[in-house]
Write a structure and sequence with these properties.
The complex is a heterodimer of chains A (177) and B (164).
Chain A (H helix, E strand, L loop, with lengths): L1 H24 L19 E4 L6 E3 H4 L4 E6 L4 H16 L3 E7 L3 H11 L5 E5 L3 H5 L7 E5 L5 E6 L4 H16 L1
Parallel strand pairs in A: 3-4, 4-5
Antiparallel strand pairs in A: 1-2, 1-5, 3-6, 6-7
Chain B lengths: L3 H18 L12 H12 L17 H15 L4 H12 L14 H29 L5 H11 L12
The chains are: A alpha/beta (177), B mainly alpha (164).
Amino acid sequence: MARYLRYLVPLGIFAVLVAFLFRGLSLDPKLVPSPLVGQPMPAFSLTRLDDPAATISDTDIKGKVAVLNIWATWCVSCRAEHDVLLQLARTGQVAIYGLNYKDNRADAQRWLRQLGDPYVANAFDEDGRVGIDWGVYGAPETFVIDPQGIIRHKHIGPLTTEVLQTKLLPLIAELKS
Amino acid sequence: MKRLLPALLFVWLLLGMTPASASSTLEAFKFATEAEALHFKDLIAEIRCLVCQNQSLADSDAELAHDLRVEVYDMVQEGRSDAEIIDFLVKRYGDFVLYKPPLKPETWFIWFGPFVLLAIAGFLLVRALRRQRQVTTAEISAEERKRLDALLGKPGADGKDNEA
C-alpha cells in the first residue's frame, strides 16, 4: 500500500498541475472581469454625438433594459461588430445606447450615416473620462443594464452573432420578464 | 577606404535611429517638490496598464495608460491619499490593476500557498532524514559485528592487527 502511495502521490500532484495548466491555456488574459457587474452604472452627463447642444446622461438609460456599447471609429473590431449591433437593433428587444469613446465627432457621425445607426442615442466622450468611470480599457465593450440601472453583464471585445444568441438575447429576455 | 565608407554609413544610421526609439513615455508633469514627483512615480509604478498588462502605468505608452496617468496626477494634486487613488482604480478596473494583490479570502492561496508548500516540503524532509537515521542504527547480529570489526581493524576482532 505504502509503495503504491509513493507513486500515486506525485502522479496526483502532476495531474492537478496539468489540470491547472490546461485550464490556463483556454483563458484569455485580455478578459479582465469588471468589478462593475452587479453595481449601479456610473453616473455621467455628456453631449449627444448628433447634437453638441443636447446632453445625455445615465438617467436617460434607466427605466428599461438597455445595452450600452462603447465604440470608436479608430477601433477596427468595432467595425467588425457593427453588423451584429444592427442585427440586435432589428430584433427590437432592447434599446441600444452608444458611448463614442475618444473619437472625432464628424468621423463618428459619418460612420453612422454610412454603416447604419443601431443606436437610440450616442454620448460623445471626447477625453475618455466617462470611459474610465465605466472601466473601459479597450473598445469595443458592451454592457447590459437592467431597468433599475444595475449593470448585469459586460462583454469585452467585438460582439458576434453567437454571443448575441447564447448570451445577450437570453439575458435581455430574462431581465424583461 | 572602400570598406570604411559603408561601415561609417552604418554607424551613422544606427546613431540616427536611437533617439526615436528611446523616447520617454512620461508626460511633462509639473510638481512643486522633488518628493512629490518621486511619490507620483512610485504610485504609477505599482499600477498595471490593462492594455499591455505586463507593463506598469509608468512604463506603458498605451493611450489608456496616458489617460490614467493624467487622472492619477490630478488626484495627487488634489491631495488625495494613495489609498483613495488605489480605491478609485480598483472600483473601475478590479484588483487586476494592482501588481500587489490585496490580502483577502480569494487571494489567500497565492499569498500563503508557497508557505504551505514550504511547510509540507520541510515536514517531508525531516521525516526522510529521521528514517535515514533509523536505518543506520539498525541492529546487526554478533557474527556480522565480528566481521565488521575485522574489516575496520578494531581490537578484539582476531588479535592479528592489534600490534601493528
